[in-house]
Each structure stands twice: as structure tokens, then as C-alpha cells.
């Protein structure tokens, strides 16, 4: 389900590293939680982004959610297809619906991100925690 | 980690397992675990506008009022004039505070000369029943019968064709906001031509133990017409397009019926009722805020709570804001005021909605945003 070549955040973003360029998107879990995505607001090429700070927002019919940057750096590329087809994020969140590419300032920032296995365990952990919550009397 | 204190178990409708089996995304809504979406809000919304959708709205509350004092009690606590209701007829109304604000909004059905049946919001049903009981100086027999009813809504242009297959009653001849005691799929209940979507359709009240049978029969009957299950997400976007108020958004303890554009259910000439004096005074002196509809010019949706600006003045806040799946626009409702007085804004007028610290252009539009062709 979750591609092993990507790294994942607790806020449900992914990043793919290619030398010091990181490609960023939101995870399949995130798009499912949001439902039908109708608009994605992204930064411009040349903008600076900071790790753990918002780099944009995803708007679905029912909710708005911030996209947090996994890394610090400069935006080198923005996926313009998302502007015309925001539903791509629902259809192919780990592939065609990448959002931005960032020139990393410090690659060590990615050391604390989760692998696919760790992210899946993290999702299962949060699911059983909320199930336990729901079943409480 | 979950904590042992403060967590109340969520209430479940009789169809909880059915929703899960259908792959619904379940959420906590007013203490109920309810389906927010199945195939997706957009898909479900469009199905209701163009074909049909079926909603489990069994979380809604029901209050039965009967006895010689029933009409007097209903007249005292609600704003609309129930004396004009014929047996078999229903109307939209509000349960009132003496301030002119609503305890809740509701549907009042007249079962008999001395027998009424109120459908109220799930989140308010206990509060509503306590309020009615407290004001029952008419010796009416008022009972909270919420647990005795499941409620399914079949909504959309194909609703008549679908429901007709399962009942001997003639649903197509039932007038809008009338109801009949009828069996659907062999289960007796109350079949009302009412809804909260802006489409034609029915709401069927019946015994909870028959829920799966009735749901399955309706799902099967609706297949040829393309009916699909729809959740609370689509219910909200549908009611918003239709310009209908939602308690906790357009209505609350701080908002009078006149401010909420509900003068049409405020019958000041029917005689005494809770809130009448305050509303009569406000009608004369003017309201403190005015309700407007608006649409966004650009692509970012407005959301509940966003500030509304006119020039360099903040004039209000959004009470409901969302993408509108059928209209394919971003729409919203807001209250606007200046110095504690309502402002009148005409359709076409420019305003701005503040989205994450930036102001985005919007335009005032007439309500409702969507009106079905009859």
C-alpha cells in the first residue's frame, strides 16, 4: 500500500528523496480522511518552506487541512496539474499527485521521518487507539 | 491514549452495522456514531439532486404531545400556528425561548385534533423535551419517544418512483408537507413528504427493530433508479445549497427567528407564545444582525467562522461555508451587522471573506442558492 521508497510524517505527508531534491505529497490515508478534494493551495517556485510549518492547504468538500512541510528548503517545482485536477490527489496520492519539489537545506532533517513499515504501524496504532476510545463506556 | 473519564459511549442507530458493511466513514455527530459518507459527498450529493439517495436519520428526536391540552401546549412553545394544521399535515416551526431565539427548529405533524408529533434535532432532543415539560401548564401528555422510532429519508426526483414500489399508499398523491400512516415494505409507520435536501422526497418513521428490513427493501427498490446511500456530509451540503438553517450554525440561543430569516414561521398574530413579545418588539425596532448568502469568486472555499469584510470593516462571520457540489461554486451563509444593527446587503454586492489571514473576494447572492424545478 505505502511505497517503500517514500518517507512519511505523523501529519500524513510523504517525501521522496533524490539527492538533495525532495518531492512532497500527502498520503493515501490523508486523502481518504479528507474525502473529495476540490482545491489545493500551494506555494510558488522560489518560496522558502520550513520543516513542520504549513506549506499549503488541501480543501475537500467537508474540510480544510494544512499541509506541513517535512523539510526546510526552497521550492523548485510545483505540480501545476493539481490546479486543474485537484481530484488527482484522491486518485493517485503517492504518484501523479505529488505537490511540490523542494531543494533541501539539511538532509539530516529527514532522519526522524518514518519508513513505510513504520508509518503503517503508526496508522494501525492510531486506529486501535481511537477504536478503544469509541468502545469506552 | 484514551482516558477513562469523560468519554461517553457513542449512541448507535439500529443500522450501524449496515453502514459499516457498506464501507461508510463513521463520525461522532452530537453523541451519535453516524455515517458521514459512503461513496463520497460529491457523488451522494449529485445522486440526490439527479436521482435519489437514502439517509439513515434515526438519530433525530421525536416528541409526542397529546391530550386536551396538546394544541395549547404546542401553540405556547412553538412559533408557527399549529391551529391551521389539518390532520395529516406538517409544518416547519421553532421551539422558542422568551428572548425570541430558538431552543431548536422542528417539524410539527398533526396526528389528530389533540395529538401532535414533533421531529427535533438529535443534539437538542433532551433539552427540547425538558423545555416542553417545563412549560406544560396545559396538562398535555408529552413524551420523548425518540427511542421508539427509526427514521429513513428517501430524497431526490426518483423518490416517488422508488417508494411507490413498496407501499399500498399512493406516495405521489401525498402533497408536500403532508403525511399518512402507511406500511412500507410491510412495516407500518408514518410516511411524510418532507425532507432536508431541497428535493422531493419522503421521511419514514417506524419501529427500530424493523430497520434493516426496511433499509434493505428500499435499497433494492431504488437500484434501477440509481439510488445510493448518502451520509450526513451530503445532507449538510444539500441543505446548505437549499438555503436551509442548521441549528448550531444559523440558529442558536443568541439569534432570533427574525434575524434568521424565519419570519415566515413566526406567527405574531396567532396569540401568545414564548418569544412573541420579544419578536414583536424586534419587528418594530429592527434586528441586530442580518442573514446573507454569498458565493466566493475564487477557488478557496469559505468555512464556518471565517470573518466577513466590507471595505475595511469586519461586518460579520460565516455560519456555514462549503463547496456546493451541484452548483459547483463555493457558497456560504453569514450574519452581518454594524454597531449592533443589521446591515442590508443586496445581491451582487461585493464583500470579502477572510481565509487564513487573507481576504478573498465574494459576492452577495439571493437565498436559496438552489431551488428545484417543480
Keywords for this structure?
heterodimer, A: 137 residues, alpha+beta, OB fold (Dihydrolipoamide Acetyltransferase, E2P), 9 strands, globular, disordered C terminus, B: 374 residues, Gyrase A, domain 2, Alpha-Beta Plaits, six-stranded mixed beta sheet, six-stranded antiparallel beta barrel, 8 helices, 21 strands, 19% helix
Mean of all residue-level pLDDT scores of chain B: 96
Largest sheet of chain B: 6 strands, mixed
Broad CATH class of chain A:
Mainly Beta
State the major sheet of chain A: 6 strands, antiparallel
Backbone CA Rg of chain A: 15 Å
Count of runs of 4 or more consecutive helical residues of chain A: 4
- CATH H-level superfamily title of chain A: RNA polymerase II/Efflux pump adaptor protein, barrel-sandwich hybrid domain
Give the topology string of chain B: H per helix, E per strand: EHEEHEEHEEEHEEHEEEHEHHEEEEEEE
Count all strands of chain B and give the number: 21
Structural class of chain B: alpha+beta
Reported CATH architecture of the domain at 11-58 and 149-241 in chain B:
2-Layer Sandwich
Q: What is the second-level CATH architecture of chain A?
A: Beta Barrel
Strand sequence of the main sheet of chain A, in spatial order?
1-2-3-9-8-5
What do we call the CATH topology of chain A? OB fold (Dihydrolipoamide Acetyltransferase, E2P)
Amino acid at each position: 500500500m505505502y511505497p517503500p521508497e517514500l518517507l512519511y510524517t505523523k501529519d500524513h505527508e510523504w517525501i521522496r528523496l533524490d539527492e538533495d531534491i525532495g518531492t512532497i505529497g500527502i498520503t493515501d490515508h490523508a486523502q481518504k480522511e479528507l474525502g473529495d478534494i476540490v482545491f489545493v493551495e500551494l506555494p510558488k517556485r522560489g518560496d522558502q518552506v520550513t520543516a513542520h510549518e504549513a506549506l499549503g492547504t488541501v480543501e475537500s468538500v467537508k474540510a480544510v487541512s494544512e499541509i506541513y512541510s517535512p523539510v526546510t528548503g526552497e521550492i523548485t517545482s510545483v505540480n501545476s496539474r493539481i490546479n486543474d485536477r485537484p481530484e488527482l490527489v484522491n486518485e493517485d496520492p503517492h504518484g501523479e499527485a505529488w505537490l511540490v519539489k523542494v531543494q533541501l537545506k539539511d538532509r539530516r532533517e529527514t532522519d526522524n521521518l518514518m519508513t513505510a513499515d513504520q508509518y503503517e504501524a503508526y496508522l494501525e496504532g492510531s486506529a486501535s487507539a481511537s477504536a478503544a476510545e469509541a468502545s469506552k463506556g | 491514549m484514551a482516558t477513562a473519564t469523560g468519554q461517553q459511549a457513542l449512541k448507535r442507530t439500529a443500522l450501524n452495522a449496515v453502514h459499516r458493511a457498506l464501507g461508510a466513514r463513521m463520525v461522532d455527530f452530537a453523541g451519535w456514531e453516524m455515517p458521514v459518507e459512503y461513496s463520497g459527498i460529491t457523488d451522494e450529493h449529485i445522486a440526490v439532486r439527479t436521482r435519489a439517495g437514502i439517509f439513515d436519520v434515526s438519530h433525530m428526536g421525536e416528541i409526542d404531545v397529546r391530550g386536551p391540552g396538546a394544541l395549547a401546549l404546542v401553540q405556547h412553545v412553538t412559533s408557527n400556528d399549529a391551529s391551521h394544521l389539518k390532520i395529516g399535515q406538517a409544518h416547519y416551526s421553532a421551539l422558542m425561548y422568551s428572548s425570541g431565539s430558538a431552543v431548536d427548529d422542528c417539524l410539527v405533524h398533526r396526528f389528530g385534533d389533540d395529538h401532535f408529533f414533533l421531529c427535533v434535532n438529535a443534539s437538542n432532543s433532551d433539552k427540547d423535551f425538558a423545555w416542553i415539560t417545563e412549560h406544560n401548564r396545559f396538562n398535555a401528555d408529552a413524551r420523548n419517544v425518540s427511542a421508539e422510532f427509526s427514521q429513513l429519508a428517501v430524497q431526490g426526483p426518483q423518490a416517488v418512483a422508488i417508494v411507490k414500489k413498496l407501499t399500498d399508499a399512493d406516495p405521489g398523491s401525498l402533497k408536500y408537507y403532508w403525511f399518512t400512516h402507511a406500511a412500507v415494505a410491510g412495516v407500518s409507520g408514518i410516511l411524510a413528504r418532507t425532507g432536508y435536501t431541497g428535493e422531493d422526497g419522503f421521511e419514514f418513521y417506524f419501529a427500530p427493530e424493523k430497520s434493516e428490513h426496511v433499509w434493505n427493501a428500499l435499497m433494492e427498490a431504488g437500484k434501477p433508479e440509481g439510488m445510493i446511500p448518502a451520509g450526513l456530509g451530503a445532507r449538510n451540503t444539500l441543505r446548505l445549497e437549499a438555503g436551509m438553517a442548521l441549528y448550531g450554525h444559523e440558529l442558536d440561543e443568541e439569534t432570533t427567528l427574525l434575524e434568521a430569516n424565519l419570519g415566515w414561521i413566526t406567527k405574531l398574530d396567532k396569540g401568545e407564545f414564548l418569544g412573541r413579545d420579544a419578536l414583536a418588539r424586534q419587528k418594530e425596532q429592527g434586528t441586530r444582525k442580518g442573514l446573507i448568502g454569498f458565493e466566493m469568486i475564487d477557488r478557496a472555499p469559505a468555512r464556518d467562522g471565517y470573518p466577513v469584510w466590507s471595505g475595511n470593516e469586519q461586518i460579520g462571520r460565516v455560519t456555514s461555508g462549503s463547496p456546493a457540489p451541484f452548483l459547483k461554486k463555493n457558497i456560504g451563509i453569514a450574519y452581518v451587522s454594524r454597531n449592533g444593527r443589521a446591515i442590508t446587503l443586496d445581491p451582487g454586492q461585493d464583500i470579502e471573506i477572510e481565509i487564513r489571514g487573507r481576504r478573498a473576494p465574494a459576492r452577495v447572492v439571493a437565498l436559496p442558492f438552489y431551488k428545484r424545478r417543480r
